[in-house]
Prior knowledge:
Blueprint: E1 2-6, H1 10-20, E2 25-30, H2 33-38, H3 50-56, E3 61-64, H4 65-71, E4 74-77, H5 84-91, H6 93-96, E5 100-103, E6 108-109, E7 117-118, H7 126-133, E8 138-142, H8 148-151, E9 163-168, H9 171-183, E10 188-191, H10 198-203, H11 205-215
Parallel strand pairs: 1-2, 1-4, 2-3, 4-5, 5-8, 9-10
Antiparallel strand pairs: 6-7, 8-9
Helix pairs in contact: 4-5
Bound molecules: NADP nicotinamide-adenine-dinucleotide phosphate (NAP).
Amino acid sequence: MNIGIFGTGVVAQSLAPGIARLRHSVMIGTRNPAELMERGTPAQGTQKTFAEWSRAHSEIKLGAFAEAARFAELLINATSGGASLEALKQAGEENLRGKILIDASNPLDFSKGFPPTLLVKDTDSLGEQIQRAFPSVKVVKSLNTVNAAVMTAPKSVGGGEHTLFLCGNDAEAKAKVSEFLRALGWADLIDLGDISGSRGMEMYLPLWLRLWGALGTPMLNVKVVRG
Length: 227
Ligand SMILES: NC(=O)c1ccc[n+]([C@@H]2O[C@H](COP(=O)([O-])OP(=O)(O)OC[C@H]3O[C@@H](n4cnc5c(N)ncnc54)[C@H](OP(=O)(O)O)[C@@H]3O)[C@@H](O)[C@H]2O)c1
């Protein structure tokens, strides 16, 4: 399957090779591919410039957001939460129409330092904002509650015995995303219902950040134990 990942940061750089290993064709989308390849500093949480990373991952294609959207049958949003709506606008409604978009973003606001606050919460969420802005897109919120390195390697934490959430309005899209996530190694999936389930998934971030601080590692996740 052709998979488009919007984003060039640590999440996209972790997802792209992990997905390509499953024999999918992957294109990463960015604002301006030429400018990205000239960038001299690595993205937050990465060691290499994008050009160096790209040379080491020649199997991953690169294009503008719109090219990645046109290329893909399945899309993943891994852009900065505050810029996700703008990135998707640049991808073009006509290129996104009818497609499944896994939204892995978090609406984090670092403008006042660490820890970040949430740009939207309680009665709304970024997942819902994306769904409202692009009604023809089948938005499935998932992967946002785990660290980038865990997304495609769940077994790297506790042997994979932990939970991943998803939510969205379209049952068929959620079934397809669940199949995709299982192929990545996720065994324990919990469907939280319609896209308003994004609220809890995004408001979990303050707890996730505290857990990171308390445990001293981002390689962590929760396991939901059923009664
Ligand atoms: N870090 C983690 O482990 C983790 C885990 C779960 C979820 N998340 C979430 O995943 C998302 C990606 O995180 P990240 O750290 O990999 O990357 P990031 O630094 O949050 O975002 C980088 C991406 O955002 C795009 N972007 C920034 N400003 C933009 C603008 N004004 N217009 C359009 N696009 C813009 C960049 O485009 P260019 O390529 O053009 O620069 C780049 O592709 C975030 O929402 C984050 O909260 C992160």
